[in-house]
Amino acid sequence: MIVLKFGGAALADTKNVENSINYIKRVKEKNPIVVVSAMKGITDLLLDTIDESLNKNYEKTVRNIDELRLKHEKVINDLVKSNEIKKNILKYFEDRCNELETLLYSISTLQECSEKSKDYIVSFGEKLSSTMVSSILSDQELESVQFDGEDLIRTDSNFNNAYPDFKETNILINKKLGDISSIPVVAGFIGSNEKGHTTTLGRGGTDFSASILAYCLDAKEVWYLKEVNGIMSADPKIVANAKSIEKITYDEVAELSYFGAKVLHPIAVHPLKEKKIPSFVKNVYDFDFRGTEIVDELHNGNRCAKAVTSIKDISIVTVQGKGMMGIPGISGRVFSCLGKNKISIIMISQSSSEQNICFAIKSNQNEQAIKSLKEEFTIELHNNQIQEISLKEEVSIISVVGSGLKNAPILIGKIFTSLGEKNINPVMIALGSSELNISFIVESINVKDAILTTHNNVVGE
Ligand code: ASP
Ligand code: MG
Prior knowledge:
By secondary structure, the protein is α/β, with parallel strands linked by helices. 43% of the residues lie in helices and 20% in strands. Magnesium ion binds at residues 7-8, 37-38, 43.
């Protein structure tokens, strides 16, 4: 049995859905379990509709729901031949859209939408797409059953970013899918907590759903189907000679995903690594291309980096003061203050003189970060033990990833020499203790040049 994961782009419209259906047909002998994302743009549309309802923009809310329904209906009308199947699925869409309308109307009246309600609403995207795909398979005489993620993945109650309880999930998945003979089509991204309330696994969470299913069912392989040739060594829009990577380790993929390359959901590889399940990132439009294989270890004495990736819209916060040395637990206070305010830190550096701490955050959290730190350190700022809490905007993080970095100290030198030659000054540097990753921050205007020069100097097979 293999797990096939189709992202939103592979289901964007009739043509893409048809291609995905044909893909499933070609591997049907392998007993595929299909996991799908919402159709392209639908999750964003649902989130946007929640905002419109909160703004009492009822007309736009209704228009959005219509758009969502029509998108799905069009695919069904184009691809399904059986009148019976068509009637049932169109009725399902109608019922679900009516439910959505009622929910959004309540939100608009109450002027409130909890994280829990948001998850419930957003889950409609995957429920509709999975039901759509399953109906089309049935129409083509491939026996198929649709599953909502709630019935399969048990999670904690961290709405929007829930984490699975693997023990419970294992029981649920094996009970429902253990010896299924038809093709299951599972709504990705969704789970439920112990009370049965809908949760979601974070944006891009369908990758994680696919890995969880593979883990619990001891799948032979997992195929993540994308619209590109596997995992690339850099963004091809920036680096024209970026290549598709043949083999990469689970750890390298995890590093890449954390650092902006939208390869897979950042924790999707964790369960796969644990059971060493062979995984591939493949091109859904090129069946014969092998794609990128994700493996546990590479034994080729590799002395190059694998890929370069970047995160934009970053700011650096600096807490600085000559008196900081004497204040106990200052870093602890900085980080717990940010944690309490749900601000996540992407990169940290502290000089050994202890006179400043710098860290990088997403720019949309700037205001909140500065405000909460100034509150936390009111006394120290007043006493001049801390002189400044400042912000540097319009910077980007660049990450060079690869297990080859471990064995090749010369690579680190090469990275910074090549930047120097281009007159690019890194404003912050962090060498991850995993030794798989060197990250540095440059001004955003230099980011393209920095990626190009780093890629050309240190990336190879
Ligand atoms: N539909 C969800 C999202 O857009 C989950 C996914 O696509 O994996 O984030
Ligand atoms: Mg998506």
